[in-house]
Design goal:
This protein is of the alpha+beta class. It is built from four helices and eleven strands, in the order αβββββαβαββββαβ. β9 and β10 form a beta hairpin.
């Protein structure tokens, strides 16, 4: 079985070479993006601006305009990667600190559901985001971003008995911007379907 990191790197390189998510069609329907070697697709929320990914393991990246009162836009990323669901959830909890120094895992909301026959884990984490601009594995000092929130989904793709790996969809940004885009994020995840 192929490693997901290798697959993600190849797909990211292709996305960089040929562009990102498809634009909305002439009828104004949502743009689409594909994951799991083109076997599944998701809708892209209206108003999310497709960007060239900052690092080559990210397949799709979007800037989500800041809501009134927030000084920064949110960032959405889509990528395939390794590690178990629990390992990745633990890593994400470690990227946030609670104002009262309580356990982020206890403060997070986690939901498990099935969409298009795929196991999906959705997490909602708030607090001070320990942002590592060069990436979570690059080292270096983190920038504390207070009043931040992350909505994320792990999709365990499996089509006709063939596992294509885990896909990670994350939306991170200031609280109000994320709150204003939660319904769009939920609709995107719920739009998962086989191609």
């Amino acid at each position: 079985m192929k490693t997901m990191l290798g697959t993600a790197t190849v797909l990211a390189a292709l996305c960089g070479a040929i562009g990102t998510a498809q634009a909305a069609d002439k009828d104004g329907k949502d743009a689409k993006m594909t994951i799991a070697e083109g076997q599944f697709e998701l809708g892209v929320p209206e108003g999310w601006v497709s960007k060239r990914p900052k690092v080559n393991i990210i397949e799709y990246e979007f800037e989500v305009p800041a809501s009134k009162g927030d000084d920064k836009p949110a960032r959405a990323t889509v990528m395939g990667a390794g590690g178990t669901v629990d390992e990745n959830l633990s890593r994400w909890y470690g990227q946030f600190r609670q104002p009262d120094d309580s356990d982020t895992k206890k403060a997070a909301k986690v939901e498990k559901k099935d969409i298009a026959g795929q196991h999906v884990t959705v997490v909602d984490i708030s607090g001070t985001y320990l942002d590592k601009p060069a990436g979570p594995f690059a080292g270096g000092a983190a920038i504390d971003r207070e009043n931040y929130r992350m909505l994320a989904a792990i999709i365990e793709t499996n089509k006709k008995g063939t596992k294509t790996g885990n896909y990670f969809i994350k939306l991170i940004g200031p609280n109000q911007t994320i709150a204003d885009n939660k319904q769009a994020f939920d609709r995107m995840i719920d739009s998962l379907q086989e191609k």
